[in-house]
Amino acid sequence: MSFLVRRLLLAIPVVLLVTIMVFSLMHLLPGDPATVMLGQEATPEAVAALREELGLNKPIVIQYLVWLGGVLQGDLGRSLVDHSPVSEIIMQRLPATLELTIGTFLVAVLIAVPAGILSATRPGSWTDYVSTTFALGGMSIPHFWLGMMFIVLFAVKLGWLPASGYVPFFENPTANLAAMIMPMVATGLRESAILMRMLRSSLLEVMHADYIRTAYSKGLKERVVVLRHALKNALVPVVTTSGLIVAGLLGGLVITESIFSIPGFGKLIVESIYNRDFVTVQGAILVSALMVVVVNLTVDILYALIDPRIKVGKGAES
User: Fold this and answer.
1) Theoretical Cys-Cys bridge with 195: which of 103, 110, 112, 190, CB 3.0 to 4.6 Å?
2) Using CA atoms, how far apart are residues 288 and 130, in angstroms rounded to an integer?
3) Helix axes 231-252, 278-306, angle to 10 degrees
């Protein structure tokens, strides 16, 4: 419990720094932010009205405190395009990205874990060569190209899956999975290659440890030694890599979302930039940064659960 409390306390200054950086985004724009948002053709009256609406005529510290107070209450402002609450817009787009992120990560894990274990336990074998070749190919082939090839093959040629679109899961689970399976697999193959290489490298190192040789000398089966003893200690760098992958997916799926016409979070940010809707951009980046903080906090907690060398207690150091 004390470990969790310490991590939560450490996250507070990080979150505060994130809010300062996100708030500064609008004020780092060259020139007057209101003029940048409305364009050079905007009338002085329109610029003055927008400055009044956004509170840009107040001291910068007051602006930040007012904005932070709204954020703490769930108020991220209103879109400059349709004047809808930014928090509602984000909540409409976020489920699609979360589903795509979770599905992509599950695809990566389901491929990477068995492939990594087989490759590490049989180095130099044909399974090791196949897994290594797959990993190299997975990291070399752009996922957007793979996504387009999937559309050509499974949607255009075979007609098995829809080429694009998105249906909420709770509205129609079957249509949702049919629409999401191609983007999940197209992106998940690349991430699985990264995870597989990391797991293979970590597991190879652990398999040469003294306690693994002792376990074999006691007559334990290979499956028991690998799954119960070696794999657990090999997971720490894999969990670190997994956290980086999930954090990157939460804000970096814009290409996949664009190819498959998924109204997700990353696509919202790009659309808002094109529309000069910097209030929405500001809110979306803040939410994205906070999700990364949560992912990192989760990874820290997982360290304590999977690594027996990390003592969770009073005065423990991780």
Assistant:
1) 112
2) 37
3) 180
Q: What is the pTM of this model?
A: 0.81
Q: HSE, CB side, 13 Å, CA atoms: give it for residue 267.
A: 18
Q: Which fold has domain 93-306?
A: MetI-like fold (1.10.3720)
DSSP of 227-264: IIIIHHHHHHHHHHHHHHHHHHHHHH-HHHHHHTT---
Q: Tokens for 23, please give them.
A: 């708030």
**Which residues make Cβ contacts (< 8 Å) with residue 317, sequence separation at least 6?**
311
**What is the rounded distance in angstroms from the CA atom of residue 101 to the CA atom of residue 242?**
12
Spatial separation of the C-alpha atoms in residues 96 and 249, rounded to whole Å? 12
The token duo for 223 is 């499956």
Write the pLDDT tens digit of every residue in 76-117.
888 877 888 989 999 988 899 999 999 999 999 998 888 888
Cα Rg of the chain (Å, integer): 24
- At residue 190, the 3 state secondary structure works out as helix
Would you call 85 helix, strand, or coil by DSSP? strand
- 88-91-94-98 Cα dihedral, nearest 10 degrees: 170
Helix (H) / strand (E) containing 258: helix 254-259
What's the full length of the chain, in residues?
318
**Sign of the C-alpha dihedral computed for residues 124, 129, 132 and 136 taken in this order:** positive
- Are 265 and 97 within 8 A, CB to CB? yes
CA–CA distance, 21 with 106 (Å, rounded to integer): 32
Instruction: Give start-end residues of each CATH 1.10.3720.10 domain in the chain.
Output: 93-306
Structure tokens at 19: 């809010």
Query: How does residue 310 score in pLDDT terms, banded at 50, 70 and 90?
Result: low
H-only helix segments in 39-85: 44-54, 60-72
